[in-house]
Write a structure and sequence with these properties.
CATH architecture: 3-Layer(aba) Sandwich
CATH superfamily: PknH-like extracellular domain
Helix content: 25-40%
Organism: Streptomyces poonensis
CATH class: Alpha Beta
CATH topology: Protein Transport Mog1p, Chain A
Low-confidence stretches: 18-52
Keywords: Lipoprotein, Signal
Protein name: Lipoprotein
Amino acid sequence: MDVKSNMSRAAMALSAAALACTAACGGGGGGGGAGEEKAGGKTSASAAPGLGKAKDKAPQAPLTAAQLDEAALASGDVPDYKVTKTSEADMPAGSVPAEPAACQPIADMFFFTSTPGAESRTGRTLAAESGLDATVTSLALLAHERSDAEKVIADLRTASDKCTAYKHTDYRYSGVEALPIPEYGDEAVSYRLKGTIEDTTLTMTFTIVRSDSTLAAFYAMKALGGDEVEVPAEVIKAQLAKLEKVRKKSGV
């Protein structure tokens, strides 16, 4: 299968994950909201609180694939959420050009890839067990050299300011909106966009956090629609805490 076909397959799988819980979700949404994030304008990502907090210590070596798997959330780590591992087929490593090029970092992060590329990655999908919450959250841990992780965050910040709409692997995305920077990790970036995939339009909210050399990337979609979708704060906090626990255990 060529890269483009693989990317298209992943796009459909990711949108299907959000739509799959529609039958089980009775009423409206109501996904847990990240208190640190509120809708903002394009200028909200121009500053970066926390940027450089790790500058005064030696960079940590990138985590291994085994360490990432140990650090990633599992069922039971966050109450009331079911966690499944993302297949490699749904996390293609290849990058397909986006139009316009200014949107490339955002297009890549939809598949949890980046330039510079991660040395290893692992992904998870979380769905609330409550039938009242139609939010599906995807996350990935990406192991980088710290300078590369910093560049990925900087490029996403720039792209969320400059990009408004783009085409990628035959799908169209619009309404790219930079959100206020959440105070997680050493630095973070957050933004929102709409994706039209197989005649279905979904709003997606992204939060990407740098913890030294590791990126913890999250995005949320609501199967029942609606613009007010947020990455649940409890998921972000639990993932960062587990990542830090593995890092301390490993001595990195």
